[in-house]
Amino acid sequence: MSKFKFSVGPWNVHSGADSYGPATRDEISFEEKIKRFAEIGFSAIQFHDDDAVPGMNDLTEEEIKAEARKVKALLDKYGLKAEFVAPRLWMDPHTIDGGYMSTRKEDREFAMWRSFRSIDIARELGCDLIVLWLAREGTLCAESKSPVWATKQLVSAIDEMLDYDPTIRICIEPKPNEPIDRSICGTMGHVLAVSAATKDPKRVGGNLESAHAMLAGLDPAHEIGFAMAFDKLFTVHLNDQNGIKFDQDKSFGVENLRVAFNQVRVLLENGYGKNGEYVGLDVKAMRTTTNEDSYKHLENSLNIFKALEEKAERFDYALRDELVAKRDFEGLEMYTMRLLMGLE
Ligand code: GLO
Ligand code: MG
Fold first, then answer.
1. Is the distance from the beta carbon of residue 277 to the nearest atom of ligand 1 less than 6 Å?
2. Would you call 51 a catalytic residue per the annotation?
3. Closest of 130, 13, 124 to residue 71, by C-alpha
4. 44-90, pLDDT tens digit by residue?
5. Which end of the chain has a smaller Cβ tally under 10 Å, C or N?
6. What is the structure's pLDDT at 42?
7. Is 124 a pocket residue for ligand 1 (Cβ < 6 Å)?
8. Tell me, what DSSP letter sits at residue 253?
9. How far apart are CA 285 and CA 31, in angstroms?
10. What's the pLDDT band for 93 if we cut at 50, 70, 90?
């Protein structure tokens, strides 16, 4: 029995289209997805603002809230919670050059409008968390904007959200690049610095995604640990990644089991979940996956997580302490490998 609760977003089941080719699987309706998510073992759904309210740019504030209430009723029907809402500030013509740090004032205003509406939607869905994945916040042309100005823009955008709703929490999902070239907030260290500069740092934390940490050349378990040391890990996006290249969002643990194990272990050791946090997955199916297997990468990720949780529960801390006292790290490494290989 897992100690954790799991969450997922509707974008984690998709048709397989990529930048180089069309869809390879059928589109699945939102309701069908969440029904299956509940059956597979997820207890909460993550949303982009327009996952909850499609076409929201053309709706009034009241209409947006009314649409969100319909989604809440669907969640209730399947016994699911909403975990967070993330303003999608990377698809719209207004966000070509980013949102909060766009070079155009009207685009920055659009980004704030979407952020405030995301807060409204979150409230209707019964959650208090806004995730900011800062997809296009940075520079495509290094000379186009000052990184000092851009960083301050991010802080003041967050301050405005904190003011808009006195109980909402803001959670930055750092990523060093892609689609932006040079990001402004690339790692958990950046997130903590930005958090500290806001008017209410307690309400500003991070969402660590395994693949994003790896793209920054960092160990995701250490990024998780760094955030947890300051009570700043508001959620996680677990997945896997084969090296420093484009963001792959592979199933959790399929590339590097030891790195995955250490992510589970650091979460377990430090009581992740005791404040209601979910273990979120952000994984993509391979393009070759068939319609029938549209959810297999999610089931695999959950099964791998739970198997690693069981290994982490069995991790022999007395032996670890004994080996550490002798500085026998070769021995400790081999013990860990034996545990992972099923030899312990
Ligand atoms: C992409 C991100 C993306 C976000 C999602 C929620 O690299 O990981 O999937 O997590 O849009 O904001
Ligand atoms: Mg993510």
1. no
2. yes
3. 124
4. 999 999 999 999 999 999 999 999 999 999 999 999 999 999 999 99
5. N
6. 98
7. no
8. T
9. 19
10. very high
